[in-house]
Predict the 3D structure of the following.
Amino acid sequence: MSRATVTKGSGNVFRDLGFSEQKSAELILKSSLLQALQETIKGRGWKQVEAANQLGIDQAKVSKLLAGQMAGFSIERLVHFLSLLGQDVEVAVRKAPRGRRYGTVRSRTPKQPNKSSATATSAR
């Protein structure tokens, strides 16, 4: 039985898959926004039709979003959807550390409270 070869990733899955720096930066942002959108919709327990009504799009597009399909959705549009759902989106820009010629793109989404903790908090 042969052993599988394991290669350590760079920390940027899109770069590891062969995307350019520019495209991988875009995909990191889009995937983070998409994840936040998915978590918000699922956290509210909405059916796809309910989410579609809130976002002003058809159910088929919500289905694509929930399936993780980013094609056809710009960063601007994903930010708009999150805004429609009452979510704040923050972008922070700072100088790259010394010794690094180019900056990096990172994304961070806070964990959404689960239904039981959200209910317990609001019940007080």
Notes: Residues 20-87 form a domain with the 434 Repressor (Amino-terminal Domain) fold (CATH 1.10.260.40). Residues 114-124 have pLDDT under 50 and may be disordered.
